[in-house]
Amino acid sequence: MDFEDMLPETLLAQAGGAIDQQSGGVVPPIQPATTFARDENYNPLNQNNIYARPHNDVARQAEAVLAQLEGGAAALLFPSGMAAIAALFRTVPTGGRVIVQSGIYWNTTKWIRDFCERRQIVIDEVDASDAAALAAVCATGPADVVWVETPSNPWLKVTDVAAAKKAAESCGALLAVDSTAASPILTNPLKLGADIVMHSTTKVINGHSDVLGGVLVTKEVTPVWEEIEVDRASAGAVMGPFEAWLLLRGMRTMALRVERMVDNAMKIAHFLEDHPKVDSVLFPGLESHPQHELAKAQMPGGAGFLMSFLVKGGKETALQVAGKMKLFHRATSLGGVESLVEHRHTIEPHTSIPETLLRISVGAENAGDLIADLGQALGQ
Ligand SMILES: *Cc1c(COP(=O)(O)O)cnc(C)c1O
Q1: What share of the chain is helix, strand, coil (3-state, %, to 5)?
Q2: Does this UniProt record's set of keywords contain NAD (predicted)?
């Protein structure tokens, strides 16, 4: 069977591909060498490998899987999601302009704001889940990058990627999508028109809360992409071979994990929506979500595993509910096989996160156990 034709489940279960010719192993080897030898005529023994900063076989194997999963031409791994975001924004010229979705992953907003200030880059922040609002901002003049995040964190807003692409095109910008909360299993932004998709592979792609990483995948190899590639190789924001190997290993079960997590999340969302001590649930899988229809079209495999809910009462009640949870770990991050709960207001008091909002990342545990934990924490 041709590698190109493999469906995601098959591609992932065999991520890393062919049998290792040297050992016969069914998983790829880790090559920790930082430098690679040359022959008597000074030719590299392996044409692909000269020095480990730009050349890392296992990272290339993981990149090939991610590029194929997203339907892209190429992928580049970075040592964290933020490093991937920074690599893209560093291509924006001094004095340029970027349009960034508001109410997204806080550290993205914070870093982009600081960066734009240093570079005299104009930044327009807009609720891009409102397609008309995004189009209106794009219509005000040319820009370099439009950055959206869908579903957004922690508001779980869904941005219409195809509409965002039209808006970005109208102002000559490339459209980049942070698809971390969706995963490559549930949405493929490049297939919907985006130019670049970004993931924090720290989250569901690795899935085991034990490796930091980030990836950019491009639809086409453009001059901007080549600039990112050259900059990574020489500025050195690379993922090491051990991390890349763990990532590849984690990816092998991604399709299974996402399937279970999506199923658990849907059950939990219904439970919370009906619970008398819950004010509202923010989850695009629920019919009550304002963008439920868009989510169904854009995320046909399910609305993900991330959701927020507002507890009735005040800040103290919300903190008490989080404090009583036994299975959900009280920790930041998302996408791991273990369920997590976060009181976002404590982390980001300066943003307008409601004090009663709890964000949960639903893991791969038994749904009944998770529901029982939420039930006892809320008080039945
Ligand atoms: C975690 C996260 C990031 C940043 O990724 P790191 O790997 O922590 O650097 C960016 N965007 C979203 C949506 C995230 O969840």
Answers
A1: 40, 15, 45
A2: no
Catalytic center residues: 53, 105, 178, 203
Contact (CB, 8 A) for 309 and 282:
yes
Q: Which of 118, 117, 125 is nearest to 145 (CA)?
A: 125
Q: Is the pTM of this model over 0.70?
A: yes
Q: For a pocket test of ligand 1, which of 183, 202, 216, 359 has the largest count of ligand atoms closer than 8 A to its C-beta?
A: 202
Q: What is the pLDDT of residues 248-290, one digit of tens each?
A: 999 999 999 999 999 999 999 999 999 999 999 999 999 999 9
Closest among 247, 254, 249 to 204, alpha carbons compared: 254
Domain 3-251 has CATH 3.30.300.20: no
Computed over its alpha carbons, how large is the radius of gyration of the chain? Answer: 21
Domain boundaries in the chain? 3-251, 254-378
Q: Which pLDDT tens digit goes with each residue over 55-80?
A: 999 999 999 999 999 999 999 999 99
Q: How far is the CA of 81 from the centre of ligand 1 (A)?
A: 5
d(CA 247, CA 201): 8
CB 269 within 8 A of CB 307: yes
